[in-house]
Design a protein that fits this description.
Keywords: Membrane, Transmembrane, Transmembrane helix. The protein is an all-alpha fold. It is built from 3 helices and no strands. It has a domain at 49-106. The longest helix has 33 residues, at 67-99.
Length: 107
């Protein structure tokens, strides 16, 4: 379950990178520099979250079921849920800025 939440969190950050790129290209091409930098930052966060989800899942699947393993899964689930929540809120805000206000995300 934590792997699925981790990949959904990664997808939300990748979506945020895509929405920021779309806003930079179509909504305000006069200020693209900060938007392009933030696209790279958001894509890097998405890639890190996906890598972390895969690495933690692979590590925990190799360990025997124990109290410590369950606790590690709980902590990973909470961390992935937090990243999913933050990514979804930022994605919603960026989408509203682009399509409601008609402006790029940054600038």
């Amino acid at each position: 379950m934590s792997r699925l939440v981790g990949y959904l969190a990664s997808l939300s950050w990748g979506g945020l990178a895509a929405v920021t790129l779309v806003g930079a290209i179509f909504r305000n091409p006069s200020l693209p520099a900060i938007n392009y930098v933030m696209v790279a930052v958001f894509a890097a966060i998405g890639a890190f979250v996906a890598w972390r989800a895969a690495a933690i899942d692979q590590l925990l699947c190799g360990l025997p079921a124990s109290k410590e393993t369950r606790r590690a899964r709980q902590v990973e689930f909470i961390a992935s849920s937090a990243m999913l929540g933050l990514g979804a809120v930022c994605l919603t805000g960026a989408s509203l800025r682009i399509w409601s206000e008609g402006a790029a995300v940054f600038g």
